[in-house]
Amino acid sequence: MFTSWSGGAAESRPAESHDSGSTSPQPQRKASASPSQESQQELVERHRRRVLDEIASGRDAPDREGLSLVSVAAGSTVFFYVTADGRYCSVLHSAAASASSCTARPAEGIGPAPALERWFEGDTYAAGPAVGLIVAADRQTVLSFSCGDERLAVRKVRVIEARGATRTIYGVELDQYSAGVLRAEVARADGRHKETLPLGTKAEDLRAGSDWPVCG
Questions:
Q1: Burial code of 30-60, b = ≥16 C-beta within 10 A, e = fewer?
Q2: Which among 158, 171, 111 has a CA at the least distance from the CA of 138?
Q3: How far is C-alpha 87 from the chain's CA centre?
Q4: Are residues 177 and 215 in contact, defined by beta-carbon separation less than 8 angstroms?
Q5: pTM over 0.90
Q6: Given this model, what pLDDT does residue 9 score?
Q7: Average pLDDT for 92-96
């Protein structure tokens, strides 16, 4: 089952099902691939071609930078891209299905002050519970993200230059849906700083008995 990526004034497109002809295996996110298995790079490139052929087309086609990898595991990939008219998009693709989401309007330009903003939040693997964020950091570099005491996996996805400033796009991964805020350490021209990034669900919005972790 897919949950469409959401956030940042995004408009989601319905999932497109692809009959894989077999039951999806349970994810082994850290398992080593055998020599006979498709390499991760081959998987990414195959999914890249499928996304460009079937999903990222027409008004939602990417600009000249193409697709940037956000995450890959368990037969699924997540890509980020920017459309020709400046909207941000994410695509989750696997043999079973695809789900995509683009912002309704072009992304705002880089402001005069450092900023940290969450653009998308959603499933990252078709067969597993992992959840990913796509985050933009303006005029600063992210050194780390944490949920409580847990250091999170972070991938640098793309660098966007505008108005003489830099916006860096990052992929951040959680083991499951969580509430609260992430803590970030960032580097600016004047040194290191601490920031917080709210998740899509506030801790106080969780129902009684929820098993969602609370970051803070």
A1: eeeeeeeeeeeeebbeebbebbbeebbeeeb
A2: 111
A3: 15
A4: no
A5: no
A6: 39
A7: 91
